[in-house]
Amino acid sequence: MIEKMIPDYYYKTIYDIPFDKLYEEGIRLILTDLDNTLISYQEELPNKELFELKNKLNKMGFEFILVSNSKKNRVDKFASNYQIPYVKFSLKPLKRGIKKAINKIASKKYNNNEIVLLGDQLMTDVFGAKRCNICAILIEAIDKSTDIGPTQFNRKLERFFIKRIKKKYPKLYQERLMEYDTKKV
Ligand SMILES: [Mg+2]
Q1: How far does residue 103's CA lie from ligand 1's centre (Å)?
Q2: How far is CA 51 from CA 66, 97, 98, 171, in A?
Q3: Are 34 and 68 a contacting pair, CB within 8 Å?
Q4: pTM higher than 0.85 for the full model?
Q5: Binning pLDDT at 50, 70 and 90, where does residue 184 land?
Q6: Which of 37, 57, 71, 137 is 20 to 30 A from 13 via CA?
Q7: What mean pLDDT value characterizes the chain?
Q8: Residue 183: pLDDT over 80
Q9: Ligand 1 geometric centre to CA of 169 (Å)
Q10: Please, what is the angle between helix 73-82 and helix 48-60, to 10°?
Q11: pLDDT of 29-46, one tens digit each?
Q12: Which pLDDT score is estimated for 50?
């Protein structure tokens, strides 16, 4: 099971992700987490950089869908402002919400190797993506101090699993998790 918690890539922020490289690799559908991935828990609306990013991705030919575990109104508010299709209360790492985005919300049929999920959590985003057999990109949370209760719990679990990954897959740990792990507050 711990294999499914190893991301395919790690980047510090969404702005550090080499989207041109992903495109070359055949990725066409980008699923993204909301909280602490696009905005912190304290923010409500997308900023200028996020709008620029979305325009860039659309121009490059990516489809971009929000998949959030939150069931709060802030998801609807953010998504309508950002004009992005979305799934809320997605229950990652369960497959249901991710599959809904892929099969019901996406404008066309994509193969698994054309899809990536971006997020700041191992237990929900990475694990959920790998359970659906799609590419997982882990990024550093925008502001961990704003994490809410369930996420704080997940961070503790995450630390336990990272230790096991480090022991069993030292090379993969070094390549994809070490930087993330050592930035923990
Ligand atoms: Mg998050």
Answers
A1: 22
A2: 14, 24, 23, 36
A3: yes
A4: yes
A5: low
A6: 71
A7: 96
A8: no
A9: 25
A10: 60
A11: 999 999 999 999 999 999
A12: 98
- In the reported structure, the alpha carbon of residue 167 is separated from the centroid of ligand 1 by a whole-number distance in angstroms of 26
| 22 Cα to the center of ligand 1, angstroms | 21
What average pLDDT score do residues 49-58 get? 98
For residue 36, the CA-to-ligand 1 centroid distance in Å is: 5
User: Which residues are placed with Cβ below 5 angstroms of ligand 1, an ion?
Assistant: 33, 35-37, 120
When the candidates are 3.40.50.2000, 3.40.50.1000, 3.30.559.10, 3.40.50.300, the CATH number that belongs to 2-182 is 3.40.50.1000
**What token pair was written down for 151?**
């996420």
CA of 170 to the centre of ligand 1 (A): 26
Q: Using one digit for the tens of pLDDT, what is the confidence trace for 54-92?
A: 999 999 999 999 999 999 999 999 999 999 999 999 999
Rounded to the nearest angstrom, the distance between the alpha carbon of 158 and the centre of ligand 1 is 13
Give 33 Cα–ligand 1 centroid separation in angstroms. 6
With beta carbons less than 8 A apart as the criterion, state whether 104 and 96 touch: no
Q: Are 124 and 69 in contact (CB under 8 A)?
A: yes
Domain ranges of the chain: 2-182
